[in-house]
Design brief:
With about 375 residues, the chain is mainly alpha-helical. It is built from 14 helices and 6 strands. Helix 2 packs across helix 3 and helix 11 (about 265-280) packs across helix 13. One of its GO terms (molecular function) is lytic endotransglycosylase activity.
Amino acid sequence: MGNESKKEIMFNRMKNKKKEVKLVRRIVFTITLFLLIVGGIGGYVSYNYVKSALKPLDPNSDKVVNVQIPIGSGLESISSTLEKNGIIKNAKIFKYYAKFKNESDFQAGDYNLTKSMTLDEIIKSLKTGKVYRKPLFSITIPEGLTLEQIGAVVEKKTTYTAAEFLALVTNDAFVDRMMVKYPNLLTEEIKGENVRHALEGYLFPATYPFYEEKPSLEKIVETMLTNTDKTMSNYSEILHSEEKSVHWLLTFSSLLEEEATAQTDRALIASVFYNRLKDKMPLQTDPTVLYALGNHKERVLFEDLEVDNPYNTYKFQGLPPGPIANAGKSSIEAVLDPSKTDYLYFLADKTGENHFSKTYEEHLKNVDKYLK
């Protein structure tokens, strides 16, 4: 009986031990499985985090953030500065990315960066000392275009029609908002009684890069107005000293722009207009007649000169009510710094070269010599 009891005890111990082993194995398996799952999830989360950190923080953001990189800054401090300013998601990932690509020689300075910049664009900016971004598309606005013509350019480069563009830039509510946003540029003069379009001549000729696939039409126009506002601020001091307005300058400059040819000396043409204004002579410039007519013609006829429109400088003395096109920098600066001459007349020959004269008799001789 004693021996049987010992056997039972041993048997029960072995049985219990097997159960413990099974339980331990089950626990180990459960824990291992749990760790694998957690590790997998953690790895997946980590992968996605790193992946997102390598992309622009906000591809749709166009807000400019000024970032100062002090002299002597290393990659680690630069990375930290970028993260603190909200330009990148993670400083360590940016640092390792730059190291992986073997990038160095970053320059100190002030940078206007955005959250929509890629890491490569940020790195290139920091290496070159200037902000670099690759635009998705650009719109080039040449000199001497009217709003209608600018609309045609926008139509070719975007999904917006020329009609939609013109409807926006001539919309009173939109113009009012822009006047509030750009008070030094857009004054009450643009709403003069005889002004055809308030924003005519106010969209500066330049190449405009865009970094989002489809910016709003308002944003496109505002980008151009911002450039005009910035450009005209360079002349505010001289305009103030001369007691002249931006509207006056853009109006005068637009006449030079429309009269100019490749060989034209704009400063000389400006002197002719100044001399005529001083002598209270009508400016008599053909582009204003065409603008008054509202259509382009290869040749202005005598009957066209009689059109009863405030923009017609053959019939009305002084500058027209507003710009007749957008003017470039060279025309603007020619108005502000004209040549000193006694010329009252000029004409362009068939090659585009201009010929100037002081008297009407000399002008008629030039007509016979170069145009007949």
